[in-house]
Amino acid sequence: MKVIKSPKSIKREIGKQKRKAKTIGFVPTMGALHEGHLSLIRQAVKENELVVVSIFVNPLQFGPREDFKKYPRPLSRDLKLCRKEGVDFVFTPDPESLYPKKFSTFVEVAGLADQLCGKFRPGHFRGVATVVAKLLNIVQPDRIYLGQKDAQQAIIIKRMVDDLDFSVKVRVMPTLRQKDGLAMSSRNIYMNMRERKSATVLFRALNLAKLLISNGAKDSLRIISRMRQMIAREPAKIDYIAIVDLESLSPLRKISGNCLIALAVRIGKVRLIDNTIIRA
Amino acid sequence: MKVIKSPKSIKREIGKQKRKAKTIGFVPTMGALHEGHLSLIRQAVKENELVVVSIFVNPLQFGPREDFKKYPRPLSRDLKLCRKEGVDFVFTPDPESLYPKKFSTFVEVAGLADQLCGKFRPGHFRGVATVVAKLLNIVQPDRIYLGQKDAQQAIIIKRMVDDLDFSVKVRVMPTLRQKDGLAMSSRNIYMNMRERKSATVLFRALNLAKLLISNGAKDSLRIISRMRQMIAREPAKIDYIAIVDLESLSPLRKISGNCLIALAVRIGKVRLIDNTIIRA
């Protein structure tokens, strides 16, 4: 396994592999790898001849009051995990090499980026779309692997890939969960024991919604109100609960077609997100 | 020579050629080809094994009151010229195939796009950057050929290519001119005889600036004022005359380093641009 810091070097190395017509699977991460990431890496190893993982805490997607500085960076542990999974290249660029002083180009996915988390994290998805566009050009993968946990991110990246004609297949893999249902996240480590227990409320609220819908509930506002009631019992602050169209992310009054139920909740200092898809 | 309308088909065709490790030169155009375009095509033929020309009047870069609808589209003449020059593929997409209904991703080059022409054509360079990002992903060229006449466009595309890590070399070729100095442009045909004669004032004003500078002039405002006086003698409306840093496009008070002198002037219903570079 090669660990490469320089964008130019990894481009060159991957270029060599591409000339051998190897298929390339790419898993972009911010490191602090957990089972969720590993499931993406395993899928990439299964489906491609060469697997590239990027580990880059992207400053462009953090707001000024967010946790960029304290975001966990256990690099040597991450590299061990990658090696164990059979990753070929790990790309670990410095922020300065991806964003030199003159950097001034941004990729915006209009509309989609202003919904859900976008309302609470202005500029976040612009940062995500921009870094992923860069990484796609550097790594030139055949397949990119994303987690369903970051549903809006996956939808925005799919839209960008289609709109800008990138030659990559976007593979979105299921959310991995702890035994009690909490979605895996690098940010879970920020919580203390009590908060950790409350955090299962996101999963429980989604299950409640699914139950209500399977029992015939159609009215989004009523379903959301029931979810709110459940979450209100915990020491949690709701950023949003939304039932939206799976492609446009626009709110749905009535459950119909494929829809996404998504929520973001603050517990202590941690902001947690989770979601589920309801298929028509 | 193959003429291909569908983005998917040309991607596939070019993919085949890339697997043979052919180098690809790309000349993006809006058609209505003139000697300026042909000089780019000839350079591309000289430097690459395969040459792709796109002919696409990009709606995204026209303002609501601009000449999108009446922009000249002499396709069969353009194709003849391409064939004669030895072009391999001509890409002639429909607007709907590049911008389907759900399209919502835009590439913005902050700062650079707001200067010079950007002030008078809001959204123009966003449209240019977005379509070029798409075309680069579709054509995957080794080299892209642009004309120096559209200086700001070339600078913005260079910035975007660097910032988003595209693997393409940007080649900017000299402006071609009529015998009387008028820069070649597909829009020159909009002018009547009298306007056509006045139009040489852009070139004359640039030459005046060069002369003043070679005689030691350093003060940009004075130079610009002399250019204004010259243009005022013609039935012309000045959009701007600017002396700017060649990379940042920010205005320079004093001539120093490499600088760009650029101007946009309306004559009758035509908006003409021209520029010259002063090397330190």
How would you describe this structure to a colleague?
- The first copy, chain A, is α/β, with parallel strands linked by helices.
- The first copy, chain A, is 38% helix and 22% strand.
- A 6-stranded parallel beta sheet of chain A has the order 1-4-3-2-6-7, sandwiched between helices.
- The model of chain A has no long low-confidence stretch (mean pLDDT 97).
- At the A-B interface, helix 1, strand 5, helix 6 and helix 7 of A face helix 1, strand 5, helix 6 and helix 7 of B.
- Strand 5 of chain A pairs antiparallel with strand 5 of chain B.
In terms of topology, how is this protein built?
2 copies of one chain form a homodimer.
Chain A: E1 2-4, H1 7-19, E2 24-29, H2 35-47, E3 50-55, H3 75-85, E4 89-91, H4 95-98, E5 105-109, H5 117-120, H6 124-139, E6 143-147, H7 151-163, E7 169-173, H8 193-198, H9 201-214, H10 220-232, E8 236-245, E9 259-267, E10 270-278
Helix pairs in contact in A: 6-7, 9-10
Oligomer: homodimer
CATH superfamily annotation of the largest domain in chain A:
HUPs
In this structure, how is the largest beta sheet of chain A organized?
6 strands, parallel
Mean pLDDT of chain A: 97
Number of strands of chain A: 10
Instruction: Give the % helix of chain A.
Output: 25-40%
- Distance between the terminal alpha carbons of chain A, to the nearest Å? 43 Å
Strand order of the largest sheet of chain A: 1-4-3-2-6-7
Number of helices of chain A: 10
Whole-number total of structural domains of chain A: 2
CATH hierarchy: architecture of the largest domain in chain A? 3-Layer(aba) Sandwich
Rg calculated over all Cα atoms of chain A: 19 Å
Approximate strand percentage of chain A? 15-25%
- Compressed to H and E, one letter per element, the order of chain A equals EHEHEHEHEHHEHEHHHEEE
Largest interface: A-B, 33 and 33 residues
Quickly name the level 1 CATH class of the largest domain in chain A: Alpha Beta
The gross shape of chain A turns out to be globular
